[in-house]
Design goal:
The protein is of the alpha+beta class and 156 residues long. The chain has one domain (3-151): Roll (Thiol Ester Dehydrase, Chain A). The protein has 3 helices and 6 strands; from the N terminus they run ααββαββββ. The protein has a 6-stranded antiparallel sheet with strand order 1-2-4-5-6-3. β1 and β2 (45-50) form a beta hairpin. α1 packs antiparallel against α2. The longest helix is centred in the middle third of the chain and has 19 residues, at 65-83. The mean pLDDT is 94.
Length: 156
C-alpha cells in the first residue's frame, strides 16, 4: 500500500494521524525526536506541525535550527513519497536553509515541489520548497531540498 493510501485510510480513524506519524517514525526513527503531527498529506503538498517543547529548544529558548531542519526534511520526504508514481523512488541530495526570524512556539511546515513530479526513464532533480511558520503565520524558516528522483530498479 502506498504512503498516501495509508494516510488516507488512517486519517479517518480516531487517532489516525497520530498512528500515521508513529508509523513514519518507526520507519525513520530520528523523526520521532520532534514528535511530528501530520495535518495534511496529498499529492504535491504535506503539512506537518511540531509542538514547542523543551527537547526541541536551544540554549536561548527558541526552536533549535536542527529541529527545524528535521521538520523540513520530514515534510519534504513524505510529500515526495506520496506524490511519486509507484515506478519511481527518491533520496535527498542536499538542503539549503534560511533562518528568517527567531522560531518560537508551534512550528508548521508546508512542503511543495517546485516542478511537476513525473514518471521518467532516467533520474532527475526535484527541488522542494518547505516554508516553516509559527502560530501567527509568520514564515520563520525556509528550506530548499534537492531531491533526486529515479526509476526503481527492475527485478532480475
Amino acid at each position: 500500500m502506498s504512503l498516501l493510501a495509508t494516510y488516507r485510510r488512517l486519517e479517518r480513524l480516531p487517532l489516525g494521524r497520530w498512528l500515521f506519524a508513529r508509523a513514519v517514525c518507526l520507519k525513520a526513527p530520528y523523526f520521532a525526536t520532534i514528535a511530528p503531527r501530520f495535518e495534511v498529506l496529498e499529492a504535491n503538498r504535506c503539512v506537518v506541525a511540531m509542538r514547542d517543547r523543551r527537547r526541541v529548544r536551544n540554549h536561548i529558548g527558541t526552536v533549535h535550527a536542527i529541529a527545524l531542519c528535521n521538520l523540513a526534511e520530514l515534510a519534504a520526504g513524505v510529500m515526495t513519497d506520496a506524490s511519486l508514481p509507484p515506478s519511481m523512488r527518491w533520496i535527498p541530495k542536499g538542503m539549503t536553509v534560511e533562518y528568517l526570524v527567531r522560531a518560537r512556539g508551534t512550528m508548521r511546515a508546508v512542503a511543495t515541489p517546485d516542478v511537476a513530479i513525473v514518471a521518467a526513464d532516467a533520474g532527475y532533480a526535484l527541488p522542494v520548497t518547505v516554508e516553516v511558520s509559527d502560530a501567527s503565520g509568520t514564515v520563520v524558516f525556509l528550506a530548499r531540498i534537492a531531491m533526486w528522483v529515479s526509476p526503481k530498479a527492475k527485478a532480475a
